[in-house]
């Protein structure tokens, strides 16, 4: 009985360590058509509806934790939805630490996504004075971002990460609330964002 219990525990631990498999998009579109949305379309037609629980009648997005995969391995598992080999994902971000709202960017122990430059404001296509979201640009690096053996090697992988303006304001409010209450929430879950991943070749 003891041996059977040990085997069962080992199998359970192995199952828990396996990365989440990409969830196949329910609708991939029509033959001959390429998915090539503008930034405001990604916010209004997809991300806003996703986070508000509204059914997406046309949904080409994969759903997966992108931080469990090197982008090369992730894109090998998924067909590109966009033209010129572009992949789109819904992913749930987790906090770097329980006392903050900054997202964890490490991909295992051997890589990480690093934000580059300032966030780009995404404006509504009808009312240009209205900001509906932000786009953050990130590069993928191989190696370690911190620690004694810190090392990083840049790669050709790039990502655009999209947030709605409501998500941005919510993060600011959470920071202020934690400053006032001085307590950490139990959940490490941060939010759901939309990610566009592509490989920027030197010749491009």
Overall description:
With 204 residues, this protein is α+β, with helices and mostly antiparallel strands. It has one domain: NAC domain (Metal Binding Protein, Guanine Nucleotide Exchange Factor, Chain A, Beta Complex), CATH 2.170.150.80. It is built from four helices and seven strands. The protein has helices at residues 2-17, 39-51, 71-77, 165-181; strands spanning 62-63, 86-94, 111-115, 120-123, 131-144, 151-164, 189-199. Strands 1, 2, 3, 4, 5, 6 and 7 form a seven-stranded mixed β-sheet that branches. Strand 5 (131-144) and strand 6 form a beta hairpin. The longest helix has 17 residues, at 165-181. The mean pLDDT is 82.
CATH class: Mainly Beta
Q: What is the arithmetic mean of pLDDT?
A: 82
Structural class computed from helices and strand pairing: alpha+beta
CATH H-level superfamily title:
NAC domain
Main sheet specs = 7 strands, mixed
Query: Total helix count?
Result: 4
Taking the alpha carbons of the first and last residues, their distance comes to 61 Å
Percentage beta strand: 25-35%
| Stretches with pLDDT under 50, minimum 5 residues | none
CATH architecture: Beta Complex
Overall number of strands: 7
Instruction: Assign a percent range to the helix content.
Output: 25-40%
Domain unit count: 1
CATH topology tier name: Metal Binding Protein, Guanine Nucleotide Exchange Factor, Chain A
**Rg over alpha carbons:** 19 Å
Order of helices and strands: HHEHEEEEEHE
Instruction: Tell me the overall shape.
Output: globular
